[in-house]
Specification:
Layout: H1 4-12, H2 18-36, E1 39-42, E2 58-62, H3 89-96, E3 100-105, H4 133-140, E4 146-151, H5 157-163, E5 166-169, E6 189-194, H6 197-208, E7 224-227, H7 238-253, E8 257-260, H8 266-271, H9 274-285, H10 287-293, H11 299-308, H12 313-333, E9 339-343, H13 362-367, E10 371-375, E11 384-388, H14 394-410
Parallel strand pairs: 2-3, 2-4, 7-8, 7-9
Antiparallel strand pairs: 1-3, 4-6, 5-6, 5-10, 9-11, 10-11
């Protein structure tokens, strides 16, 4: 894989130019894209800045995020060839830092659950996950050092786990959603994919304008980590269980104190209501598409919006109240723990007929807290673990993930 941090070190050391770094990414795409299918559109002629902290970094932009110089097609024939007049705020920010928006990456239609044509780089007979399928696969295949995705349920953390890359879903609204197609305004969150935790930490620090997020690999002193299996969400596969145990041992090697934890009642109740909030808002956010292009919607999304018509405002308001109570309970929980450790996905990537089950991600998206996934070696196919911290404490989530990453390398 291409490491953002390593590329920048080579540029700062004078052994690589920004233009050469972008050329390397183009060459990797030309070689690997035909078997992966992660790129929805590749920029032809693009200026390569010589300065800036992201100069030389080729970035993949999920194809629900507006780009003025490339089409934004939402993974749907309803938007075939559509060209926004302006970049989304996050794209303008990365360009201002010297980064190059080199490609639009494949998304499931409207960031939903219908599978995309992208293939998993580790096994083309398996899904790369979704809905940020192209972003995860492009980074995993070594085509891009950084890619943007979005998460409403588990669309960043789950595909990163299936593809064996690091990713972060930051605290809710840490990164601007202006210019990103909405599915659920209470849940949608921008996320980042990279080769390792240090790569996504460095990128998030720059894109958010918060230097403290990038801890430079310094782990928190003897962190208190709560081990959460989310029994209310169902069982994980044996591969995920083994991976979680390896991560626990790695954390303990790094000096962490890991304690098994059962989440208090408001949190499982909120988990069960995630879909009410998501679907009630999706029917409104995709109101034009549903009214004017229902026949063009893919089967899973179309049926999801059909069912959402039966949801009432009272059910939606009740779900929001449960979410509010759960956030208060989680805030209290973080007075006892620095981070939580849990599954990133149910197990290894399933077949291409699905994008996988996001049930181990939904609660944390609803809570708006930062979530980091990192790959854990040991299985035949990639499986990750998820590290979660208090709302607004993205740096601590990343530091705990770095501690586990270092422990895995040492073990």
């Amino acid at each position: 894989m291409l490491s953002l941090v390593d590329i920048r070190a080579r540029i700062e050391g004078g052994t690589l130019t920004p233009a050469a770094a972008i050329a390397e990414a183009r060459a990797a795409i030309a070689e690997r894209e035909p078997r992966i299918g992660a790129i929805a559109h590749l920029a032809e002629d693009v200026a390569v800045p010589e300065t800036g902290p992201l100069a030389g970094i080729a970035v993949g932009v999920k194809d629900i995020i507006d780009t003025a110089e490339m089409p934004t097609q939402m993974g749907s024939p309803l938007y075939a060839g559509w060209r926004p007049r302006a970049d989304a705020a996050i794209v303008a920010r990365l360009k201002g830092l010297g980064g190059v928006a080199l490609a639009k990456t494949v998304t499931c239609a409207f960031a939903g659950l219908d599978p995309s044509p992208t293939r998993n780089p580790h096994d083309p007979a398996r899904t790369p996950g979704g809905s940020s399928a192209g972003s995860a696969a492009a980074v995993a295949a070594g085509m891009l050092p950084l890619a943007l995705g979005t998460q409403t349920g588990g669309s960043v953390i789950r595909p990163a786990s299936f593809c064996g890359v690091a990713a972060i879903k930051p605290s809710f609204r840490l990164l601007p959603m202006v210019g990103v197609k909405t599915f659920s305004w209470a849940l949608d969150t921008l996320g980042l994919f990279g080769a390792g935790v240090r790569d996504v930490a460095h990128a998030l620090a720059l894109l958010s304008g918060r230097e403290g997020i990038d801890l430079g690999g310094t782990p928190p002193g003897a962190p208190r980590i709560g081990l959460v299996r989310q029994e209310f969400a169902g069982e994980a596969q044996p591969e995920a269980e083994r991976t979680l145990e390896r991560a626990v041992r790695a954390a303990e090697r790094g000096g962490a104190r890991v304690t098994a934890l059962t989440l208090p009642d408001p949190l499982p109740e909120a988990f069960r209501r995630h879909g009410v909030i998501q679907d009630f808002e999706a029917l409104q956010a995709l109101g034009w598409e549903y009214a004017n292009g229902r026949a063009a919607l893919p089967p899973v999304l179309g049926a999801q919006l059909d069912r959402a018509q039966a949801l009432s405002a009272a059910e939606y308001d009740d779900a929001r109240r449960h979410a509010h109570r759960a956030r208060r309970a989680l805030k209290d929980l973080f007075s006892e723990y620095d981070a939580l450790l849990t599954f990133s996905a149910t197990g290894i990537a399933p077949g291409p007929e699905t994008t996988g089950d996001p049930r181990f991600n939904r609660l944390w998206t609803l809570m708006g807290v930062p979530c980091v996934t990192l790959p854990v070696p040991g299985e035949a196919l990639p499986v990750g673990v998820q590290v979660i911290a208090r709302f607004g404490d993205d740096g601590r989530a990343l530091a705990a993930a770095r501690l586990i990453e270092a422990g895995l390398a040492a073990g």
